[in-house]
């Protein structure tokens, strides 16, 4: 995910959620508008249509009322309700509100008589306001219109509302389907737009991780001239500038290293050369005693060995030998290194203790190179203790870790300053007295550790005194 993310969702998810929420709010508003306005409009349209139809019918039946043809009037009312199922009933009353004829015949329901009385009582002119009714689970609308302006009586009608409600439901269903379709389309479009926005950001995040790992060669394709495109261009420019800066830094660092190496080599070779020149000048004397001649020859030999050792150390630092790995027990390697170092330690002044984990498996390393690292660490620890002219101890410890094995060499010597601790792996840097070491041992040891995929670090001892050297070696 890439790394897993917990908590706030990504930009694409937020964008899609925002579009979905906007669609829901818009759809809910439309549905509410439909519920309030459209249904009300359909109902009023239905009322107006049947009110007009009722006025037309009232003009037709006025003659029946004036001539007293009540039987024919009832037959007309019955046939009208049969022809138009929207008419639930039709009732004609005289000017006193008494029923003259109805589509029910002479059996007018008592509940309907109450509605007729209520409609007559609420009359304002020839017509009255529609009355909503509920009859046997159905919604009805009671309408009234006057005959001859109300002088000859009134015509009452019960209009069923199911058809108007069915129309409203059909419109509502159509709107819901349209709303769902638009919401789905909006979410899909939001997903595409979110992808267009977040894809460059995702590539930038990938490139940033590559830059963090040291790869500055990646570039983001610029596919638009908008803000995202400008950001991609700026990111590419930043990556190019970082690459140029790194190259300049590498060149500067190489020059600094070369200068340090040259200075170190000059120092390490110049000192013995001065001694060699003095010895050669003394050997030219014809009357030089034999014992002095032998002493000068020994000094020449030591000086040449020192120069040769410096050159060999430098060659190992510049061109580390290839590792010949094989499964070995680090316990055996440590024991061998301690055996090699122990004879060079001052008797009864410096002791070496082993703290090894016995159940560790074999690990694939170059036995000779790791032994070289351990001998160097042990000698550095012994030299640090000797510089105090006191007693001390060195502990070689081996433990298992989550990804390999950890070897530690801990001494209780004077330690090392923080300033020197930051430079101990620089070539030719040494805290020993002049002539005691070339300053390449830790640099070579660090190269061996890195060639094995491990690390070599130095830090103050556990109680603030001495030095703790830690060599981590992976199992793979």
Structure report:
It is rod-shaped and about 175 Å long. A 5-stranded antiparallel β-sheet has the order 2-1-5-4-3. A 5-stranded mixed β-sheet has the order 7-9-10-12-11. 56% of the residues lie in helices and 16% in strands. The chain has 3 domains: 11-169, LuxQ periplasmic domain, N-terminal subdomain (Beta-Lactamase), CATH 3.30.450.220; 227-318, no CATH class; 326-474, 2-Layer Sandwich (Heat Shock Protein 90), CATH 3.30.565.10. It is of the alpha+beta class.
Name the CATH superfamily assignment of the largest domain: LuxQ periplasmic domain, N-terminal subdomain
CATH architect. name of the largest domain: 2-Layer Sandwich
Average the pLDDT over all residues and give the rounded result.
76
Q: Give a quick account of the main beta sheet: strands, pairing sense, barrel closure.
A: 5 strands, antiparallel
CATH class identity of the largest domain = Alpha Beta
